[in-house]
Amino acid sequence: MRRLRRLPIGARAALAAAAMTAAVGLLASWLVLTALAETQRDRLAEVVRMHVDGLSLALGPAAQRRDIWEIYDTLDRAAATGDGRLALTVVADDRGLVLAASDPRRAPTDSALAALMDEAQPIDALGDPGLSARLRVLAPLAHQGRRVGDILTELDVADLVTERRRVTLALLIGNTIATASLTLASYLVVRRALRPLETLARRMGDADGAPTAIPLDEAPRSGGEIARLFRTYNGMVAAIADKADAGRRLAERERFVSLGRLASSLAHEINNPLGGLLAAADTLRSYADRPEVVRSSAGLIERGLSRLRDVAQAALDQHRIADDAAPMTPEDVDDMRLLIGAETGRLGQRLDWRVAAEPAALAQWPATRLRQIALNLLLNASAAAGRGGRLGLALTVGDGGLRLEVRDDGPGLGAAALARLTSAEAPPPGGGLGLRLVRELAIELGGSIEHARDGAETVVAVTLPGRPGTREA
To answer: HAMP domain location, by residue (predicted)?
Structure first.
């Protein structure tokens, strides 16, 4: 049953129609054979009644007088005038003893009639002879309304059995041919009728989330429900395509709106610190000889630049610039050390820097993305290590690709920060996007991220597979 359920609906419907046709053929054969058996039984019953009724009239007085010779004479005359179907006739008295028989050797006089009554059927309840060539029928022998004995008749029904076998064989052959032809025809008709549904199901199954319209040459040419179903499906496909196109246009418009809002926000966030910086610069120019004014203006400049750095960092976290064309070079590594060195120097931190990679090997990876990964991890490690802490970077290139390992002696990553770095789920609210950016960049480059706690240090390692065809720096 499971295999049948896996078949296409056209094949299942065709097989069901074929099975129903075969069942109808079998039922028709059974009805014909049953009617033939009833007809033969009626013929036999008529023959037996005529034979018994005639013998009852002729043998009644002789059986009452126990005139054996008259009974023999009557049986001889009945056998001579019969149609050859009577194989044996036995006449018994009311005590069940044989008076005479058409074949005395099989039924001697004064023998018990019960010895011949095996498989004998009463004349009033005559059944189907089946495939037996002989049929025995037992009937009462009456005279003047009184039972004086019994008549046992054995009929030769071999011709009827042969006729039944011949009819059965012809019926089976004919019905088999007719049923097979009708079964094949019904299978082909149903399969052809349901072929459009199979086409529709195949198209929907091959769509893989993006349904495509069915060409006109595959749609049914005639009208009807199937044709309307095809037209409805093509209309749905067109509506989905229109909706997707409208969604793309809306997303493009939203993107431009978002870019406009971003530009406006950035301009606003940058303009305010710039005003303070310009005022501080003007103050320095006017009061360069007053140390307290210089210190105050320098503090204002530092705070304004810090604000601008925060704005720039937020913009980088939210909207990074992809630049896969520029390969990684040793100069990019030096720039990373210089940039993180300013932060570690400000916090009085110790930086361990270990790079073991040839320029040609580094050129396999894009500089922009690799720099973003390294700087985000280093800035996060510096913030975790705190003032006077220790952090380090180890960059190696081997057969397995590039391995970038960042360590710090801070307290370790919290659950929310670890989820941003390693989980595919949506990041929890709050916190920066630097760690999530590291994960997305690593995945885009086909890499993996490992996190471990090594003694008092937190270790985050990013492994990037090598690219075929190393590019020269």
So the answer is: 191-245
Sign of CA pseudo-dihedral 242, 246, 247, 251 = positive
At 254-283, the pLDDT tens digits run 665 666 556 656 665 676 567 667 767 777
- In our burial notation (b when 16+ CB lie closer than 10 A, e otherwise), range 89-102 reads bbbbbeeeebbbbb
Distance CA 23, CA 463 (A): 68
**Mean of pLDDT over the chain:** 77
Edge-to-edge strand list for the sheet holding 401-408: 350-356, 390-398, 401-408, 457-464, 448-454
Q: Are strands 146-156 and 350-356 parallel, antiparallel or unpaired?
A: unpaired
Q: What is the pLDDT of residue 450?
A: 92
Taking the C-alpha atoms of residue 404 and residue 422, their distance in angstroms, rounded to an integer, is: 16
Q: Give the chain's domains with CATH numbers.
A: 2-170 (3.30.450.20), 210-319 (1.10.287), 323-464 (3.30.565.10)
Give the span between the Cα atoms of 294 and 301, in whole angstroms: 10
Which pLDDT band holds residue 464 (cuts at 50, 70, 90)? very high
The tokens describing 316, both together, are 């980088």
